[in-house]
Amino acid sequence: QLYRDARECLTLLSQRLGSQKFFFGDSPASLDAFVFSRLAPLLKAKLPNGKLQQHLKSLQNLCNYCTSILSLYFPWDGGEPPASAPRAAGADGGEAEEDPHKRRNQLLSVLVGLAAMLGYAFLSGIVSIQRGGAGPAGRQPMALAEEEEEE
């Protein structure tokens, strides 16, 4: 039943698209983004059961639709990524450094996060620091539970 419904949905999408470039004419709309996000993986991925994929491949206008969007918005798909895309590893097997200050930035991120958590803990009263000596008027520091009982 699920495959039958999916096949029907693909057929209806194919009929609605017809010979247009996009569902609502010559320019893409949010529906095009949504439909493409569902069709492209179905068309490109290797699936354990290819029944639905075969049906999609038989609908030539939907295949052309996906190919058109891929080439228009993702021209590097299937080829080299654009120059702005980060490189993974060098040809000699050594790791190419994406960001020369990556370790420093990671350490700073951890330190800022730790400082923020400690600041929140102190300002909200979760953690407080008491001095070891006698407090004002000769009072000794007391535990939190004792302070609450006194109030």
UniProtKB/TrEMBL annotation:
GO biological process, any: mitochondrion organization
Transmembrane segments: 107-129
Native source organism of the sequence: Alca torda (Razorbill)
Protein name as catalogued: MTX1 protein
The UniProt record lists the keyword Transmembrane: yes
Region Disordered, annotated ranges: 82-101
Residues annotated as domain Metaxin glutathione S-transferase: 6-69
Keyword Ribonucleoprotein attributed: no
Keywords from the named record: Membrane, Transmembrane, Transmembrane helix
GO CC terms in record: SAM complex
InterPro entries linked to this entry: Glutathione-S-Trfase_C_sf (IPR036282), Metaxin_GST (IPR033468), Mito_Protein_Transport_Metaxin (IPR050931)
Pfam families: GST_C_6
Lineage start: Eukaryota, Metazoa, Chordata, Craniata, Vertebrata
